[in-house]
Amino acid sequence: MSVPPPIDVRGLRKVFWQTTTGQAVIAIDQLDLTIAPREVLAIVGQTGCGKSTFFDLMIGLEAPTEGSIRIGDKYPHADFDHFRGKIATVFQQDRLLPWRSALDNAKLPLELIGMDEDEQRKRALTWLKRLGLGQFTNAYPHELSGGMRQRVAIARAFVVQPDILLADEAFGHLDEVTAAELRETFLALARECGSTAILITHQLEEAISVGDRIVVFGKSAKLLADIHVAQWPKSKYALLREAIQFTLQNNRLDPRLKRIGAKAKRKKKR
């Protein structure tokens, strides 16, 4: 199992210009962030704080206005072809092709990278079975429930055995029972595969339950807080939720997050 490359974000800035007025809209401004190999990072922030723009930059769909995202020694936009099959994304909507079966949807990324057809089928079947869809490989999206379609989307992401997994509000539209089950499955598979996983979520419970770290974005993608979840005992999770909520609502760091982090660092040194 190969070790994914580290992700280093430095001075990242992304500006869009409105077509009608020509006015600049700053989506991300001077973002610095380092993500370690195999880390599970949850990103939370209010609507319009640049979370989805950050993902577009991560997968190379957009180029930074200033600064950089470096993955190992490569850059997602400049080295777009290098990252084919190395980065996979699960979106809020499953984005399955309605004219393709579950099996054909799951193997699509392997087709795009030119893998042998027998290997495509073998890998896609393996992941569909692992996600509990072994009896539905020939079903079309309209024949599947929302949760089952999202399972196909997860299989489609894992089938390339990616270094980096991105999940953009991937479970928020599902009922809570299904969402909790799929979150747990996604996390277990990411850890088993040794992938670095980055999840965008608006649900604090989800962020706390899945993340090794939680980063809180303010506007415009300003890094308000960087929280190592292991520093917080479960008995203080209610306080953690409250402090993150304060940070989001006021667009500034809740002092309690800083105090707990400082205490944890002092204990670690001892």
Give the gist of this structure.
The chain has helices at about 50-60, 100-105, 110, 115-130, 145-160, 175-195, 205-210, 235-250, 255-270; strands at about 5-15, 25-35, 40-45, 65-70, 85-90, 165-170, 195-200, 215-220, 220-230. It is of the alpha/beta class and about 270 residues long. Helix 4 (about 115-130) crosses helix 5 (about 145-160) and helix 5 (about 145-160) packs parallel to helix 6.
Written description of the protein model:
- With 270 residues, the chain is of the alpha/beta class.
- It contains nine helices and nine strands.
- A six-stranded mixed beta sheet has the order 5-6-7-3-8-9, sandwiched between helices. The chain has a three-stranded antiparallel beta sheet with strand order 2-1-4.
- The longest helix has 18 residues, at 176-193.
- The two termini are 34 Å apart.
Name the beta content range: 15-25%
The shape, in one word, is globular
User: Average pLDDT across residues?
Assistant: 88
Largest sheet: 6 strands, mixed
Task: Order the strands across the largest sheet as they lie in space.
Answer: 5-6-7-3-8-9
Which helices and strands, and how do they pair?
Layout: E1 7-17, E2 24-35, E3 40-45, H1 51-58, E4 66-71, E5 87-90, H2 102-106, H3 108-112, H4 117-130, H5 146-158, E6 164-168, H6 176-193, E7 196-200, H7 204-210, E8 213-218, E9 222-228, H8 237-250, H9 255-269
Parallel strand pairs: 3-7, 3-8, 5-6, 6-7
Antiparallel strand pairs: 1-2, 1-4, 8-9
